Amino acid sequence: INIRHLILTTNSTINPSSMSSDTAINNHGATQDLKPKVTPDEALSILIDLYVADGFDDEKAKSIGSLPRVEVIRELDSYDDVNYLVKIDGEKALLKIHNGVESEKYIAARGRKRTKLNDGDSPGTSIIDLHTVIFKHLESSKYNVTTGRTIPPKKSESNNRPDDSGVCIRELSVISPEHGPRHLAIRLQTWVHGAPLSSIEWCPLETFVDAGACLGRVCHALDDLAASDPDGAAVRASERYHLWDGKNLMDSKPYIPHIDDVGRRRLVTGILDAF
To answer: 186 by DSSP, 3-state: which?
Structure first.
């Protein structure tokens, strides 16, 4: 059971603006207001404009046959971003459009990195920067981890890129009309094939052993992440306070009274007491 999600979503009368002492709650409300509102047709337009090179490889096109060269297959579940499973020249990919909060921090960080810093100032950073460093770091064969690789945009759209991270910027609508449209960060990743463990009704014990071993390799790889982030800016983004972080679980207590349902309130209280 995700206790924080239960606390944050049970009572819609909680007013994040009245909780100025808790940045995490405010960010929760903001990311939901600034969640991208992107239709499949808009996603298709983004793909064509940003990621499809001028003209297709004739030989590859012949091998695909009558299949559309660019497809938006379906929207995927996402908490505060928008993700689409897409195909380009028959190859699956993940189109990710970040929420307005993360996008704003990313754009601000790019501007700060281009500015001459005073002594003692730190380079700008954001969670999107952290994602970029992690993806690049895990590409090393020594870690034996299969993960999505960032697909760079086509050269003719290079003016949409604040830097060489493979992230593009587009003005798009968000859930809250009064807060949009917003400049949002966009990334295209190669598709990692396989079935989510949650979708499998039964699997042998060995599957869990393999999953644990994979997570262990990722953990060890991320222990060395600083090697891929010389100035430490991206890694600093991982040090932000986040209410969803397990070590901050007890900070949820002040919001328990806002849960109207007595049964749910006892459930949360009981788990927090046991924790």
So the answer is: strand
Contact present, 169 and 185 (Cβ < 8 Å): yes
Report helix, strand and coil shares of the chain as percent, to nearest 5. 50, 15, 35
Compute the distance between CA of residue 82 and CA of residue 77 in angstroms, rounded to an integer: 8
Instruction: Tell me the chain's radius of gyration from C-alpha atoms.
Output: 21
Helix (H) or strand (E) holding 219: helix 205-223
- Smallest CA-to-CA distance from 36 within 171, 237, 157 is with 171
Rounded distance between C-alpha atoms, residue 95 and residue 167, angstroms? 11
User: How many CA atoms lie within 13 Å of 8's alpha carbon, on the beta-carbon side?
Assistant: 22
Residue 205, pLDDT above cutoff 70: yes
Tokens of 222: 């991320």
Two structure tokens written together for 194:
């396989």
CA dihedral of residues 46, 111, 237, 255 (deg, nearest 10): -80
In the chain, the percentage of residues whose pLDDT exceeds 90 is 34
pTM of model > 0.70:
yes
* Residues forming a β-bridge with 95: 84, 188
Do residues 233 and 129 touch, judged by C-beta distance below 8 A? yes
